[in-house]
UniProtKB/TrEMBL annotation:
Protein name per its UniProtKB record: Deoxyribose-phosphate aldolase
UniProt-annotated location(s): Cytoplasm
Assigned keywords, A-Z: Cytoplasm, Lyase, Schiff base
Any one cellular-component term (Gene Ontology): cytoplasm
Predominant location category: cytoplasm
Gene Ontology terms describing biological process: 2-deoxyribose 1-phosphate catabolic process; carbohydrate catabolic process; deoxyribonucleotide catabolic process
PANTHER family cross-referenced by the UniProt entry: DEOXYRIBOSE-PHOSPHATE ALDOLASE
Reaction equation(s) it catalyzes: 2-deoxy-D-ribose 5-phosphate = D-glyceraldehyde 3-phosphate + acetaldehyde
Gene giving rise to this polypeptide: deoC
Pfam families in UniProt: DeoC
Stored InterPro entries: Aldolase_TIM, DeoC, DeoC/FbaB/LacD_aldolase, DeoC_typeI
Record-listed E.C. numbers: 4.1.2.4
One MF annotation (Gene Ontology) recorded for this entry: deoxyribose-phosphate aldolase activity
Organism for this UniProt entry: Tessaracoccus antarcticus
Record-stated family: Belongs to the DeoC/FbaB aldolase family. DeoC type 1 subfamily.
């Protein structure tokens, strides 16, 4: 059964992570987010602190984005600064190379480093399209053990692709409701958004939120 437009909107992190984004575009994002009734805005850490009135909106930002190939110390420092500058939620990218090298404990340790300095919710981006099923499970287990609040499919920047319903379903089965599941990357229409929710997503990362909510097709992007 489809959820309503309003219920779907309340699951959305309205996102602007383009490398050439301006502060004026961020202000437009915030205004549109308030109009659409979404849950939060997600922006780059360089845009913090925000002077815009957020109203009911939560403020999310990214960490170790988009490659994840930062040291745990660097990721923790970035997350700590973002929280100090007003971020309510941190979406961190894991080092998937460590996971593929058979070192999930190293992934857990970097998540723990960010968790220790994050005052709000921590979402862990695992880049699911680049992983095997076993690696997806291992990444989710590392995130849960390290104290994360969510696991998240994708940055939207990896050439392997973004969210898939199969990955979301496996992630949801692995965390068993103990963590949230955020689907992000290449969700550009209403049917895809609904499929992610049906598969177990409890949050959606969208850049073309208006088009999705209105039943159209969003332009390429996050």
């Amino acid at each position: 059964m489809e959820i309503s437009r309003e219920a779907l909107a309340r699951m959305v992190d309205h996102t602007l992570l383009k490398t050439d984004a301006t502060q004026a575009q961020v202000s437009q994002l915030v205004a549109e987010a308030k109009e659409l009734g979404v849950y939060s805005v997600c922006i780059s850490p360089s845009m913090l602190p925000l002077a815009d009135d957020l109203g009911h909106l939560k403020l999310a930002t990214v960490c170790g984005f988009p490659s994840g190939n930062h040291t745990p110390v660097a990721k923790a420092a970035e997350a700590a600064e973002s929280c100090m500058l007003g971020a309510d939620e941190i979406d961190m990218v894991i080092n998937i190379g460590l996971l593929k090298a058979g070192q999930p404990e190293k992934v857990r340790e970097e998540i723990e480093a960010v968790r220790a300095v994050t005052s709000g919710l921590l979402k862990v981006i695992i880049e699911a399209a680049a992983l095997t099923d076993d690696e997806i499970v291992a990444a989710c287990q590392a995130a849960e053990t390290a104290g994360a609040d969510y696991v998240k499919t994708s940055t939207g920047f990896h050439p392997a692709g973004g969210a898939s319903a199969a990955a979301v379903r496996l992630m949801a089965e692995t965390v068993g409701g103990r963590l949230g599941v955020k689907a992000s990357g290449a969700i550009r229409d209403w049917d895809t958004a609904q499929a992610m929710v049906a598969a177990g997503a409890t949050r959606l990362g969208l850049s073309g939120t208006r088009s999705v909510l209105e039943g159209g097709v969003a332009d390429g992007g996050y």
